[in-house]
Amino acid sequence: MRQRPYSYRNDASVPAFADDRPVIVFDGECIFCSSWVRFLLRHDRLARYRYLTAQSPLGQALYRHYGLSVRNFESNILIEDGVAHFKSDGSIRTLAGLGWPWSLMNICRILPAALRDPLYDLVAKNRYRIAGRRSSCVVPTPEERGRFIT
Asked: Is the pLDDT assigned to residue 105 strictly greater than 90?
């Protein structure tokens, strides 16, 4: 699914948001996904990423804009330089953006997405069984609050 960079800016249903840094849209009720965000917060020493829950109005609008289900959040979205990256590509790019040693994950991009994404899909479809579900989204600490888009 190819979109023009910053295509969401021309979509009246997507509210304007700060997109000067990469944004990760994630399922805030999924313990697995929230743990992923906690991992990123811990290792993103340059505070490169901003975070947004898929359950928020903006998250829902972005999922709709990209033709994704607003009920089954089976893909995190990495929006970087106005371009959305999904599934394994988004995860690999996110890790690589953390710098050394995580940038070594870029080697995984040698494999075509057709080989990487089935594993991603398997985990995504079973994430609630693997880790569980919360009735509310992740709550950032006061220090982290500025890194979340509400």
From this structure: yes
Instruction: Name the residue ranges covered by the structural domains of the chain.
Output: 18-144
Paired residues of 79 in beta bridges:
23, 84
Distance CA 40, CA 52 (A): 13
d(CA 58, CA 56) in angstroms, rounded, equals 5
pLDDT score for 63: 95
DSSP state at residue 77:
E
Amino acid letter, 121: D
CATH 3.40.50: does it fit domain 18-144? Answer: no
42-76 confidence digits (pLDDT tens): 999 999 999 999 999 999 999 999 999 998 887 89
- 94 within 8 A of 49, measured Cβ to Cβ: yes
The stretches of the chain forming alpha helices (DSSP H) are 31-43, 57-65, 87-96, 113-131
Give the phi and the psi of residue 102 in degrees, each rounded to 5: -65, -25
With a cut of 70, say whether residue 120 has pLDDT above it: yes
Mean pLDDT computed over every residue of the chain: 90
Smallest Cα–Cα separation from 95: which of 58, 120, 122? 120
